[in-house]
Amino acid sequence: MDSIGEKIRIQRLTKNYSQQYMSFMLDISQAAYSNLERNETDLTIKRIYEIAEILEISPFILLPKPKFGTYINYHNFMLTIRKIGRFWSDAIKRKKENLPEHINVYNSDIEKLNIE
């Protein structure tokens, strides 16, 4: 399993970026950047996001995999999506009620947004 520093090094080499370029972009010394790749310095989440942005990759590529998997309870997920949909639909209906008279919104358009 690759460490975060190793993942950063691989991505940097893939982009043909030098350590000097990366250290310049991160506003740190080249020695400090080298320590990041060798895992001699702990990385903050903010720093991981900065590095990912420079490398034009998702920060999740650099982060370690979760210990307990990535299982999503599908039933609860769908219930949450429906609640958000109802909330959104109700918010649109409230906005429609407060629209000036010269703006026309048809009920058929609003009904298409209803989520049961």
What does this entry look like structurally?
The longest helix has 24 residues, at about 75-95. The chain is built from seven helices and no strands. The chain has helices at about 5-15, 20-25, 30-35, 45-55, 60, 75-95, 105-110. It has about 120 residues and is mainly alpha-helical. The model has no long low-confidence stretch (mean pLDDT about 80). Helix 2 packs across helix 3.
Short description:
The protein is mostly helical. The protein has 7 helices and no strands.
Labels describing this entry:
single chain, 116 residues, mainly alpha, 7 helices, 61% helix, elongated
What's the SSE blueprint?
Layout: H1 4-14, H2 19-26, H3 30-37, H4 45-55, H5 59-62, H6 74-97, H7 107-111
Strand-and-helix sequence, N→C?
Answer: HHHHHHH
Major β-sheet profile: none
Strand content: under 5%
Secondary-structure-derived class: mainly alpha
Please state the average pLDDT score: 81
Distance between the amino and carboxyl termini: 45 Å
Basic shape:
elongated
Report the total helices. Answer: 7
Which consecutive residue ranges, at least 5 long each, have pLDDT under 50? none
Summarize the amount of helix as a percent range: 55-70%
- How many E-type strands? 0
Our Rg estimate from Cα atoms comes to 24 Å
